[in-house]
Amino acid sequence: MPRLEKSKGRRSKRPKLDWKFVQRFCNIQKVLFPSWSSQSVLMFGTLLAVTLTEQLIIYQVGVLPSHFYNVLADKDYSGFSSLVGTAIVLILLNSTLKSLDQYICNRMYVSWRKTLTESLHTAYFQGRVYYTINVLREDIDNPDQRISQDAERLCKQMSTMASRLIISPFTLTYYSYHCFYSTGWIGPVSIFGYFVIGTIANKILMGPIVSTLFEQEKLEGDFRFKHMQIRVNAESAAFYRAGKVEHMRTNRRLQALLQTQTSLINKELWLYIGVNTFDYLGGFLSYIIIAIPIFTGIYDGLSPGELSALISKVSVFPGGNLELGDCSFLTNKQNEL
Questions:
Q1: Which residue range or ranges hold the ABC transmembrane type-1 domain (predicted)?
Q2: What end-to-end distance do the CA atoms of the chain give, in Å?
Q3: Residue 324 confidence class, pLDDT cut points 50, 70, 90
């Protein structure tokens, strides 16, 4: 008989975002990316090329309002007509690249799920592992749910995050340069400082949620398994007239699940407040950054039209540089992982 680990010791370790999580996540990546010539690596490289091109187009679209300010302030009709044509072409390119980005991510999701699930099946059906896990091990809950549902959700979340993660180092460098060129050192330093504070705050707020979310998923599996037991043993339960007993036991499982869900919702409230606060405050950060050189007289030589164009251009940087919306997006996805 295989050696069993003590379930109490295992249960005392609450899941959290720590080095153990990083190690396990890296082990999963080794399964998904077995070699440099694998299909996953090729799709990942294609996604990188598409997202890089997409970001270049997005930047050009983002600075279009500043050009419109210039031509409208100067009442330049020919320049305005040319700018409208350029805007239409850029928007069509952006839409096409965005759709291609989503298509590749969906294909990666299917490929990753196939690879990960088949790897789990290989380990699960090796020898009598399936018997050991389901019958002898009490510290591993609902292995069927882990393989069929959790693996699917993990691959889905990673595919959704993929394009934003791989493009971040490039957009960070690109927009930091343009931000420094327009506002000086105060711009990049302010943005980086803002997001370091936001990341630390979100990490603190996310800590209590991880273990509660894990417990909720466990209770979801237990509740589903209870109904499966009744379905499989319906004839025996009817023979022994066990309807009232099973009713009471099933409701007890439901109450435990709902209590945990309520606790999770209460904890998520503070995370949402933190994420949304930093998200919306970021919208004003660009104006605070550009206000410093304006009030110190650095841009006194610009005309009102040129100054309006500069303000419009600088307002693109915090959103593109560190992607305020993506900050909240990735925080929620990391929480779900």
A1: 41-312
A2: 34
A3: very low
